[in-house]
Design brief:
It is a single chain. The chain is α/β, with parallel strands linked by helices. Helix content is about 25%, strand content about 30%. It contains three helices and eight strands. The strands form two sheets. Strands 1-4-3-2 form a four-stranded mixed beta sheet, with helices on one face. Strands 5-8-7-6 form a four-stranded mixed beta sheet.
Amino acid sequence: MERSQGTIQRLAITGVSHIELLVSDLEASKAWYESAVGLVQLQAAPGKYAVLTPEGGGFRLGLTEKRAADAHGEFGHLAIRVESMDVLTAWVEHLDAIGVGHTPIKENPNTPGVFSIDVFDPDGHEIELIHEP
């Protein structure tokens, strides 16, 4: 379907609303996202779902408990933007301090100047922390 520039402007995207991940152990995943990524809980139904967000807002992360075999599905990854290389380096230090494994800081081979690290939640979902100047 072809769209004119006017249609694209009317359909402007303003940001990410929310992401939902299917997890096998809701409490373990919630605790991981709180300690490793620093998200805080907005709402929850124990044993069913939890909604988390960064302290300053920006997006919501929904965690929904499913059977282990159904948990990972076809999800690619969640990329969380950070404001500077200093902040990305601080994330590395934080993850090291709490014993959460991660990749080294790497530059995107297709976009020079963009750097990131990857961490994996308890269900193996890839979480990318990325600095895009």
